[in-house]
Structures are given as C-alpha cells and as structure tokens.
Amino acid sequence: MFSPEIEKFLQGNNYPVFCPKAVFFDMDGVLFDSMKYHASAWVKAMQQAGLPFTEYEAYMNEGRTGASTIDGVFMNIYGRKATEEEKQSIYHLKSNFFESHGKTERMPFAIELLKKIKTQNLEIFVVTGSGQPSLIDSLEENFPKIFQKQKMVTAFDVKHGKPNPEPYLMALKKSGLKPWEIMVVENAPLGIESAKAAGLFTIGVNTGPLNSNVLSEYGVDIIFDGMKDLYNHWENILICK
Fold it and tell me: Domains, the chain, ranges and CATH?
C-alpha cells in the first residue's frame, strides 16, 4: 500500500533494501498527550521572563532541548544566546508550570501499537528532546516492560538536540543496525528534520494543531492522522522491500 513512499525513500538515500528491525519513537505528542501542557508551560514561563512567545512557536520548536529553545528566543529578541543563569531560570519556570498540570495521559492507541510491535520482535527506542524527569520516569509506569533505559536518548545524552541529527544518529549507533532497518515515529517538524537528516524512514503522526502540510514540508515519508490511524495501517508499512 505504501510501496511508492518506500521506493522513493530507498532511491533518495541509495539504500539497497528496506527491512525494519527497530522503531524509534519520539515521546511528547507521540507516546504521551503532553504537548498541549508543554506549549502552555513555555508560553507562561517566557511571559514571566518578559519574552514574547506563542503556543504555535512552542509546537514549531517541539523536539529542541530546553536550552536550545531559550537560546532561539534570545537570539530573535536580543541577538545573543541566553546566559546559563537565564536558561536555568526560565527552564525552572517552565518545568514548574508543566508539573502543575498533573499526570500526563498516554496518547490514544500508543500502548496498543507498542504491544503489537513487541509481538513482532522489533526493537523499540525512545528518542526525545525532553529533559522532563517526570515524563521520562513515567514511561515504565504507563508502558510496563516496553522500554529499556539503554534504548533511550534524551536531552541529557546529546550536545545538539533536534533538528540536529545527533539524537537519531546516537540511537542508530546504540541499535547496531543499518539506517534502512529503522522506522521513526515523529509528530514534530524539527523531529522529522532530525530523523531525515540521519537518513531514516520517518512516519509522521499529526497529533497537534499544525497542518499536515507543515510536516510534509519537513520531509516526512508518510503522514497519519494520529496514532490510531498509524495502528490501523501498521502492517501495510512493516514490509521488507
């Protein structure tokens, strides 16, 4: 069903075959229905610091490390990066606002998809720009026996977050697999850019307010309207070609 997209991916990267052995998942907006809380927290933290910032900007910056997001705002307004003290202060505010929302729910059909993948003996990784301890710690609580610490890449593990390819290249190295043996599931433009720059087949799930055309512009290979849509079509993608 998705043969043309897979063929285009193979030809564009000059890969010999497409045969998935692992799936790399973004976390916020893919596994957890958390982006609306992150966006709100970023807006409130920036406003309290006297910085203009919108929820749309939060979604467009999704996937960056917190430090990178703050640096971007400072560059736009002041023409300089934020100091370490400014970064820590703003990110502390953002974290507190985020935590005030309470428990974050799983994204609908995330656990169903993960269980299906588990039965197919595919490796499962998390590749996230998040440094939010509560979310990372809650993976085991929400998705028991699915994830392993050694198969995670977070904001604490990289020097350059998304859209730089470093997070996905690090996960690729950890997996010990070839680029054509990986599928990425992302919901954010910068996450898609990161995965594509790493040479990986990237599935977009539109779980937020952005138009699907935005995801297309960042080079996603296939777009689905949320995790349920991806779950229903999973077997049509999981083919060796």
Answer: 3-33+105-237 (3.40.50.1000), 35-99 (1.10.150.240)
> What pLDDT digit, counting tens, does each position of 230-241 carry?
999 999 898 777
Q: Are strands 201-205 and 123-127 parallel, antiparallel or unpaired?
A: unpaired
For 120-157, the pLDDT digits (tens) are 999 999 999 887 666 677 898 999 999 988 999 988 88
Instruction: Provide the 3-class DSSP secondary structure of residue 67.
Output: helix
Cα–Cα distance measured from residue 220 to residue 196, given in angstroms and rounded to the nearest whole number: 7
Task: List the strands of the sheet with 152-153, edge to edge.
Answer: 152-153, 123-127, 22-25, 182-186, 201-205, 222-224
Gap between the Cα atoms of 128 and 110, Å rounded? 16
- At 68, list the tokens: 């990178």
pTM (predicted TM-score): 0.90
Give strand pairing partners of 203: 185, 222
Query: What DSSP character marks residue 32?
Result: B
